[in-house]
Amino acid sequence: MRERRDHFIGGDWVAAAAGGEIVVHSPATLELVGRSADAGPADIDAAVAAARQAFDAGPWPWTPARERAAVMRRMAAYMRERGDEIAELLCDEMGSPISFLKRGGGDGPSPLFEYYADLAETWPFEAPRQGALGPAVVRQEPVGVVAAITPWNGPLFILALKVAPALAAGCTIVAKPAPEAPLDAFYMADAAAAAGLPPGVLNIVPGGREAGEHLVRHPGIDKVSFTGSTAAGRKIAAICGEELKRCSLELGGKSAAVMLQDAAVESLVQCAIPLGLAFNNGQACAALTRVLVPRNRHDEVVDAMVSFVKGLKVGDPRDPETTMGPLIAERQRERVERYLGLGREEGATLAIGGGRPKGLDKGWYVEPTVFAEASNDMTIAREEIFGPVGVVIPYDGGDDEAVALANASTYGLGGAVFSADPDRAYRAASRIRTGTIGLNMFGVDPYCPFGGFKSSGIGREMGPEGLASFIEYKSVFNRARPEA
Ligand code: NAD
Q1: Could you read off the pLDDT of 133-178 as tens digits, one per residue?
Q2: CA distances (Å), 246 to each of 223, 231, 463, 473, in order?
Q3: 215 CA distance to ligand 1 centroid (A)?
Q4: CB of 151 sitting under 6 A from ligand 1
Q5: Which of 141, 256, 361, 374 has minimal CB crowding within 10 Å?
């Protein structure tokens, strides 16, 4: 049982103004995991005021980059030391398998803080340029006070994707984690306090949609960095548009795993299930949920997918053998089950799954499911289900038809192309309108930009591009400067 009843505002622990609290239950056992403060408008106002003060009066925005980097490295060290604790909390809060959370050593957000600390030290915050008017200086200044709004499905990592580059740029931040998984974010607050981050530079105020909207509308906010659903992203973009606030949006997806005629079925299936329908219990924005296969290879692919799915271990996320846990909430299971019904009604063939796993009566579990012989215009192929549902769509024709089908989506976040010929795979991948694509693999690399084409978002996180999104450019000309 974790008690985090205070917000982190201005470097202090502050009780929620209206006494609000969020009660978190495990989606696997339904037992109480903990309680967190719940932000109302007054808490958001206080957090923005603290961040505004820390930005306008400094010194964080003009602290030398190497000193900012030193604080960030201390934050990374603090969180790394608590890696196991953090992974266990995330497992309890959102039901992700512990095996998934501890992959790669379970370092969590620490490598991102270290990466952006390194980048800050070499970033050209001030660069001379020969202009038409004479010598100039191009300054890259922090964009200001950032509202960081995050979802529950990778909460601490996604928060770090915003906080680490924003700190590196010299911004101050008000973070509003999602109410489904608010507790882990307080580790970042603890890290900030332990590392000596100046008061007000990072403020953490978990809360719901109304708190989020109040934050977006707040006149003290200069930039909104949002990750979540496309529906919420549209609303946030509209508000930011009215007020000309900078905004970046990391939204939903319906990514395609495209099998070309010469591809090996094993390489497709070994990627398209763990990084598709089973990725984070089926709740991953970039999951490969549309599997496009040549019609003459359809049955072979479906057989291989079914046998792979049979090998998944669905159950207690705390068990190191488990590969798939529950969905986040009852309403999410209802939503997924609605799609399972729609898949059947619209004529797809249920190859495996489609119900609730036997013997798991507690918790929001759904069977990993594969629909076969689907078409790209079915609802299950068009809309983001956010559950463990893969949709196999046969196509006729060659690579052009496969590419056209991959592009026949309002989304464009992830994707993969499978072929025995790397050049052929690269040619197809280069024509698919999506932000990240793998050849005979899929991955998200924190050193490379990640984000969406089309309704999957605007802007990029990760890599230097992630830092650039927290920058404003300023050109400085100097009449007094001697002629070059
Ligand atoms: P959501 O949009 O319901 O909520 C996300 C966050 O926004 C939460 O903190 C929520 O409280 C807040 N929010 C919701 N409506 C708001 C509004 N009108 N104004 C301000 N804040 C608002 O999404 P979710 O259910 O928490 O997360 C799942 C979605 O997130 C999926 O669509 C998934 O694809 C997407 N996602 C995208 C990425 C990415 O990098 N592209 C990563 C993870 C999740």
Answers
A1: 899 999 999 999 999 999 999 999 999 999 999 999 999 999 999 9
A2: 5, 18, 19, 13
A3: 14
A4: yes
A5: 361
